[in-house]
Design a protein that fits this description.
Layout: E1 3-6, H1 9-29, E2 40-46, H2 53-71, E3 81-87, H3 92-104, E4 110-112, H4 117-129, E5 134-136, E6 152-154, H5 164-172, E7 181-187, H6 190-196, H7 199-205, E8 209-216, H8 224-233, E9 237-241, H9 245-257, E10 264-267, H10 275-281, E11 289-292, E12 301-304
Helix pairs in contact: 1-2, 3-4, 8-9
């Protein structure tokens, strides 16, 4: 589900709707009226290279899709939208520099959020310094909202509630169909642990037994021993606190070698974009349960992956 996964089309439309309201309110509340001429300039720092480039490219595609749609339907408040993207190379400090340039040098009208928590906090910090609002959809760790960034607005749920639909789905099953045991593994990354840890007491109160609860350093690059502990637990449900597609893929590939196929498997970050999913799990294993986080025409729900 991630973080990505916070890059979906519906989130983009909500972001721009909020921008439109912001633009209208600034115009009506100002004593000095300034007429906007030319395009509406919107700037974004995105991870087009580096470890998070897959998510960065998805974010850029989503923003550009919206801009193209709006421009083909008369523009924003009658003005064409001009998007400017700078690559932060998956380095939070570069995101700060990018937003500094977008605001101070390029003089964009608005800035939108990048990918991931640290990048979002850095970008919002720069925006606050210049009196800009900062609307974003991927900085959803509860810690992101402890920095006094009153200019930052999120269009996504808090990460602590991402798995609410999963919990509801499991506990809604008839007792004879409901899983009995759960294995939890998560990195100590604030985003992943914020999703996984709240689930534990909720499922335990629902009668599911915790057979594994392991937190490992986010810097850990060898996940096979952790995956082995999940397999050894024989848990009916495996909940994985992964922070990148590569981590989730490592788990899935190890599970396949051990023929471990739990009733429910969910990861906080993983392959969720068409062929990236089937390439990671294999076409014959593509019929798994998952939670659809954002979809332009459907609400969040648990269901079978369809390609």
């Amino acid at each position: 589900m991630r973080r990505g996964r916070q890059t979906k089309t519906l989130a983009v439309f909500i972001v721009i709707f909020m921008l439109l309201l912001s633009a209208c309110s600034q115009t009506s509340g100002s004593t000095t009226t300034t007429t906007q001429t030319g395009p509406v300039k919107i700037g974004v720092s995105v991870s087009l290279t580096g470890d998070a480039s897959a998510d960065g490219q998805a974010i850029k595609q989503g923003y550009q899709l919206w801009a193209d749609y709006v421009n083909s339907h008369g523009g924003l408040l009658g003005h064409q939208v001009q998007m400017t993207f700078y690559d932060d190379a998956t380095r939070p400090e570069q995101a700060s520099l990018n937003y500094q340039k977008l605001i101070a040098v390029d003089k964009v009208n608005f800035v939108l959020g990048p990918f991931d928590d640290a990048f979002t906090v850095n970008g919002a910090t720069v925006a606050k310094r210049y009196g800009y609002s900062f609307i974003q959809g991927t900085g959803t760790s509860p810690k992101d909202f402890t920095h006094g960034l009153t200019n930052m607005f999120s269009v996504s749920l808090s990460a602590s509630r991402y798995m609410a639909s999963l919990v509801h789905y499991i506990l809604s099953l008839p007792s004879d169909m409901r899983p009995k045991t759960v294995a939890y593994v998560t990195s100590d990354d604030g985003f992943t642990s914020a999703q996984v840890l709240p689930v534990i007491p909720e499922l335990e109160q629902g009668g599911l037994k915790t057979v594994l609860n392991k937190i490992y350093p986010a810097e850990n690059t060898d996940l096979n021993p952790i995956a082995a502990s999940v397999v050894a637990s024989h848990a009916d449900v495996a909940i994985l606190g992964t922070s990148a597609l590569s981590e989730c893929t490592a788990y899935l590939k190890y599970f396949a070698t051990q023929h471990y196929n739990p009733k429910v498997l969910i990861a906080t970050s993983g392959p969720d974009q068409g062929s990236a999913f089937t390439q990671a799990v294999g076409a014959k294993n593509a019929d798994h349960r998952c939670v659809t986080h954002w979809h332009i025409s459907k609400p969040a729900r648990a269901g079978k992956v369809q390609h």
